[in-house]
Amino acid sequence: xxxxxxxxxxxxxxxxxxxxxxxxxxxxxxxxxxxxxxxxxxxxxxxxxxxxxxxxxxxxxxxxxxxxxxxxxxxxxxxxxxxxxxxxxxxxxxxxxxxxxxxxxxxxxxxxxxxxxxxxxxxxxxxxxxxxxxxxxxxxxxxxxxxxxxxxxxxxxxxxxxxxxxxxxxxxxxxxxxxxxxxxxxxxxxxxxxxxxxxxxxxxxxxxxxxxxxxxxxxxxxxxxxxxxxxxxxxxxxxxxxxxxxxxxxxxxxxxxxxxxxxxxxxxxxxxxxxxxxxxxxxxxxx
Length: 287
Fold this sequence. Notes:
Helix content is 38%, strand content 20%. The protein is of the alpha/beta class and 287 residues long. Strands 1, 2, 3, 4, 5 and 11 form a 6-stranded mixed beta sheet that branches. A 5-stranded mixed beta sheet has the order 8-7-9-6-10.
């Protein structure tokens, strides 16, 4: 009997896209994978509870769960010249203590926002409800994420790109770490290595078969956007750089952790390479 592994991810297009090669049975596997789709803050909250075997998380959350979860190299989303957007009504002038809607306390966009706008009054909402909150004057502004950055009401304008804010803090041109995947340390290391390899292959297959998989997702009505926006979004957040983190991406994650530590969000500064699954274990074991 195969072991059941629960993989939790967000309902946005890139997470679904990167997971569905597993769901559709495109690769042989040693586990029965079961998936759960939740908004990013719910995923972060569940990770704090050590709830799911494998979970999508905000990179900014990771130092808070590092003792319970290893960080996977695969199924990652980075902004490179783009990212979440702080939007407001075009006629709105933001005061220092403006009221803003964010998608969750432990998201990367929240971390960067808090470093920049220290006096803002924050409320947290499901990312799907943020645009509406701005339009109905529940808040003065909101940070849009996921597909929302591609198409929002014409009465709104971009006050700030979080990409630009990130570059100001990072002091160098590094990709913006947004979403990653974490795996529970309670799983046997041999299983952890196999799971990371399966998910890496799934993301690689998805990227190589983007047209076929996109059509399948559209036919099953698993995506909230039309085909054109889906292709645009996947090119941004689910691409060859999502398959396995490279050295520049790892450097960017470390910079995020360093900034979070320097601004008092984490108790200690950690090096991401110390928290990845040691793939070399399998080679040593089989040698």
